[in-house]
C-alpha cells in the first residue's frame, strides 16, 4: 500500500511538469538559445524551458509593451555546487547607455522546475503566471513580444554576457 501511495505521488508530480513542449523557437540565428514552452490558459500559467549552448548563466528578458522596462528570468546550473539557481528580476530599459542592471523582484513569481548541465547545454525550466499582477512583472499577452536573450560561460552574475540579442515571438498562440 505504501508503495502504491508513493507511486501515485510520483505520477502526480510528473504530470504537473511538461516534458513535451508544444512550442519551441531558436531566439538567435546561430542556434545557441532554444526556448521551449507550454501555455495553459485554463490554469493561467506558462512553463518555459531554456536550452542554451553555454556553460554558465542564461537569461530571458520580456519587454513591456511600451519598451520602458522588462521582466527578467535569470538562472543556470553550477557544476561546482551541483545546484541549479534562478532569480526573478526586472530592469529599466530607458536608463543609461543601454539599460540598468537587473535587480531582484520584491515579490518573486517564478516557480523553479529544474536546472541541468549536460555538455554543452545548460537547461533551465521555470513556470509562472501569465499575469501575476506584480508591478515588476510583464504580463504575457497574446501577440508578438519583444524578448531579450543572453548567456555567459561563467556562473557568476557579475560576469557580462558572452552573447545576447533580441527576438520577437508570440508566446500565446492565436
Automatic annotation (TrEMBL):
One of its GO terms (cellular component) is secretory granule membrane. CDD domains: DOMON_DOH. One of its GO terms (molecular function) is dopamine beta-monooxygenase activity. PROSITE patterns: DOMON. It comes from Daphnia magna. One of its GO terms (biological process) is octopamine biosynthetic process. Keywords: Signal. Residues 31-152 form the DOMON domain. This is DOMON domain-containing protein. Pfam families: DOMON. Residues 1-16 form the signal peptide. InterPro entries: DBH-like, DOH_DOMON, DOMON_domain.
